[in-house]
Each structure stands twice: as structure tokens, then as C-alpha cells.
Amino acid sequence: MTIEHGKPDVINATPTKRLFIEILSRDISVKACILDLIDNSVDAYIRNGITDRRKIRLNISKDEFEILDNCGGIEYNFLKNTVFRFGADIKRDKPTLGIYGIGMKRAILKMGKKILMETDDGKSFSKIYLDVNEWCKSDNWGIPFEHFEDSRLSSEKKPYTKIVVTDLYDNIKDKFNLTSFINSIGEAIHITYAFFITKHIDFYLNNDVKIKPFIIQAR
Asked: Helix/strand/coil (H, E, C) string of the chain?
């Protein structure tokens, strides 16, 4: 019996970005996403070995989400090769809050369709603009960004990272428009990051409202 073989070929089984985004962000709450982004800022403070007080600011509205920290910025190679890689093996020589290296990607992709990120580590400056709809049209998973080999900080400013998410999904807009939700974020920061608020970092929410640390009273 002779077995006839046809011309070898390959079936395209590459997952779509839309499916990947949906699976990645499906089972996490918006509040958890925001705390993941705060974790990243706190981790930058730890990773960069900072000892003086720094700031993390959040502005949340139905039009946009913004988080800005001056906790050291992101080094160029770490940004290029690790920060946006899903499941990247992140080497840690200091204890950090984030574990799996997916918090930032999952958070920003869950919130909206247009993302701006700027970071300056005091040595160089990088800027990323990601239009999720356009990115999803291509099979290329790379994310283009602009890199400048000199710092863009003025002498009095500290290295920073800023993330702004706009063109929010409707369910995110509705949630961000609720005073009760904004208050719940402030309460979560007040409790979750009490140690850092007390010793290391000032946290600010909408209208530059400074968050006080949760104090445990011994009886």
C-alpha cells in the first residue's frame, strides 16, 4: 500500500490580540488593576534604591486615568525588553509587591483603547503611544516607542513615569464617574500602602487630595 503525501504546509494557530486581551483582563476588577499600577510605582521606588520621600499621584475621571510617580523612572533596556513582555522572567534582587510581571499590561488594556506612557530615569527619556485598535490589526506584537538618549528632566525634577489611559471603555467610564468608587480607591490606598505612606511615599488622589496612612492602634 502506497501512502501519498501532499505538499507540506502550516496552519496559522497564532492567538489574536483581542482574545489575548480579553482573557488577560477578564477576571480582575478595575480596583485591582489600579492597585497593580500603584504596586509598579512602589516597586520602582524599591528597585531604584531610593531613600528620600517621593510622590505617587492618581487622577481618575470618566475621561481618563492617569498615574504619575517620581520613583526613579524605567531604565531603557528594562523598558524595551521586559516591561511590556507578557510572562517575562523579571529578575528581582530586592523584594517587590508585583510578582508575575503582567500587572501593568493587564491594567491599562482593561481600561481603555489609547495609552500614553512617558518615563525618564535621569539618563534617558522614552515615550510610548499605543492605539490598541490599530495595534490589534497587526500580527506583529512589537510596540513602537520613541527613545531619546538624553534626560529631559530639568535640574529640580526627579526621574518619573507617567501613564495616561484615554478612550475608556463604557463600563470603565461609568465606574470612574462614581464618587463612591473614587472614595473606595482612596480607602484602599489608605490601608494597603500605610507603611509606605508613613515612611517613604506621599500619595495623592483627585484634586491633589493627600492620603493619610491607616494607623493601627494598640489597646
From this structure: CCCCCCCCCCCCCCCCHHHHHHHHHCCCCHHHHHHHHHHHHHHHHHHCCCCCCEEEEEEECCCCEEEEECCCCCCHHHHHHHHCCCCCCCCCCCCCCCCCCCHHHHHHHHHEEEEEEEEECCCCEEEEEEEHHHHHCCCCCCCCCEEECCCCCCCCCCCEEEEEEEEECHHHHHHHCCHHHHHHHHHHHHHHCHHHHHHCEEEEEHHHEECCCCCCCCC
Q: What pLDDT, in 10s, does the model give residues 129-181?
A: 999 999 999 888 899 999 999 999 987 789 999 999 999 999 999 999 999 99
Does the structure show a pLDDT above 80 at 94? no
The domain locations on the chain are 28-210
pTM: predicted TM-score of the whole model, two decimal places = 0.88
Fold for 28-210, please state it.
Heat Shock Protein 90 (3.30.565)
